[in-house]
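Type 1 glutamine amidotransferase domain-containing protein: structure, please.
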Amino acid sequence: MSNILMIVTAASSLTMKDGSEHPTGFWAEELVTAHRDLVAAGHTVTFATPGGVAPTVDAGSLDPSQTGGEERAREFTAYLGSISAELGSPVAIAEVDPAGYDAVVLPGGHGPMTDLAFDAEVGRVLVAADEAGAVIAPFCHGPAALLSATRPDGSFAFAGRRLTVFTDEEERTGGTGENTPWFVESRLRERGAVIESAAPWSDHVVVDGNLITGQNPQSSASVAGRVVEALAARG
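Here you go.
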């Protein structure tokens, strides 16, 4: 079985366009679904965050109105409790040797817009993983982390690559709205990524070689499934 690095935001807030602080963190459904399905497939998952800081769950992602009901909210809360020891003591990204992992998975929440998108160590890991052909799988706001991946010549490592991400429309209508400090889809397009979006809130995955991306929380299980398939195909 494979070793998987799950890079999680360590941010607990996002500074909005008007200067206010919006509480955030990682999105429960995304981390829970990916971790659960990857471990169930027999893989080993290691958590990593900037500075080795214990990540914060976005409280909104455990609200029954966001999870699809009380039962799922309890399910996510219980699962996070079951992995609290490992989630609470992540590896610092600066200490990560990308050669030790077959895949890098990056769940979202708005937190990556605060830290992962600008973290040089995240960029180092992603560039090395991509050059080694490791599976790279960010989804929802997770693809914001790709923005940190700059090659030594200053070029964007994922320019020209096909991917999907939480869309500007989804952000405006069901995310943080017009007060969003910057839009991940637009920023990735500006850097040269080729964005392929589906209808808002639909389960949508794009695979471009070793890069597997999902559009939103609804795509979490599909992304994990594609990662499992990709690793199985490698033997």
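Notes: The chain has one domain: 3-233.
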